[in-house]
Design a protein that fits this description.
By secondary structure, the protein is mainly α. It has helices spanning 11-24, 27-36, 41-63, 70-94, 100-107, 110-122, 128-144, 155-181, 184-206, 215-243, 245-251, 254-267, 273-290. The chain has one domain (16-290).
């Protein structure tokens, strides 16, 4: 009898995380367009999260899937209100003390933190394949960013950037647990509800909420909510459920590669040899994650 070897990883899960990365990669372009409409950063974030929350809750209500265990609903809400909001605040705070390139580089250490947290909290050491893929991912992300040799970075900026990466790694770790207890769509909806409440309160208290006043601004904010938030978060959660935290975290670093390509296509940005090499290493890590045993 012929024995057919099975793939070592779920192809559907890989596709879901890649689709999530594609959605998140549009954030930079849409955020630039929103800034051109004179919307402040926190207002954009509040409308983005609020719109995504409305879309997902509409889906839940239409499918009658909003009823979940109270404990799971509270956990998802608190994860959004604290975990997601805090790491976002750390990331944007780091931008005030370090360049965008350095901040992004430090943030994309999150797969390493996610791997560490899964090892410590769940007693699941990474496989050799995951370790190799993680090393390629970190090296690729460092090459994909701009040349930082002449950057003058304040120590606080470094600390905040690393803290943002650690915060997102912890967020992914707990999200991986969450999607085992409730459907990904419901988990995303309750999580986004918590983050919307948290970010909206901060926005209204500190800066005031800017309301999009033109059709163009409304279109940009709507795109942020649907294509750069609702869809990628649901597909990321679905991928987390199928792949586990470590593999999903490593695969999700395809986002900066896709973001660079988006910048080339729509903003006329250039791509140097250093960035091509970095992107190639990240793609190689994705191939390793999908390899058969």
């Amino acid at each position: 009898m012929r024995i057919i070897s099975k793939p070592s990883i779920d192809r559907v899960g890989v596709g879901l995380v890649m689709l999530s990365s594609l959605g998140f990669s549009t954030l930079a372009i849409l955020a630039k367009l929103a800034h051109a409409q004179n919307l402040n950063l926190l207002s954009v974030l509040a409308w983005r999260l609020g719109g995504a929350t409305a879309v997902l809750w509409l889906c839940l209500l239409l499918r009658n899937q909003w009823q979940v265990k109270r404990q799971s609903a509270i956990a998802a809400f608190l994860l959004g209100a604290s975990g997601y909001a805090i790491q976002a605040a750390l990331f944007f705070s780091a931008l005030a003390y370090a360049s965008a390139g350095m901040t992004v580089l430090l943030f994309f250490t999150y797969p390493a933190f996610a791997t560490l947290f899964c090892w410590v909290l769940d007693h699941r050491p990474p496989s050799r394949r995951q370790i190799v893929a993680l090393g390629l991912t970190l090296l690729g992300c460092s090459l994909l960013t701009q040349d930082l040799s002449s950057e003058v970075v304040q120590p606080l900026g470094i600390a905040l950037g690393i803290a943002a990466g650690a915060g997102y790694g912890l967020y992914l770790t707990f999200s991986g647990r969450l999607v085992l207890a409730m459907p990904p769509l419901a988990a995303a909806a309750y999580m986004l509800l918590g983050s919307t409440v948290s970010i909206s309160l901060v926005t209204i208290t500190w800066l005031g909420l800017n309301i999009p006043s033109t059709a163009v601004a409304v279109g940009i904010v709507s795109s942020l909510a649907i294509f750069a938030t609702a869809l990628p978060i649901v597909t990321l959660f679905a991928g987390l459920k199928r792949l586990g935290v470590v593999s999903a975290a490593i695969l999700s670093t395809l986002e900066p590669v896709l973001a660079v390509l988006m910048g080339m296509l729509f903003l006329g940005e250039s791509l140097g040899l250093r960035q091509m090499l970095g992107g190639g290493l990240i793609i190689a890590s994705a191939i390793i994650i999908q390899a058969r045993h």
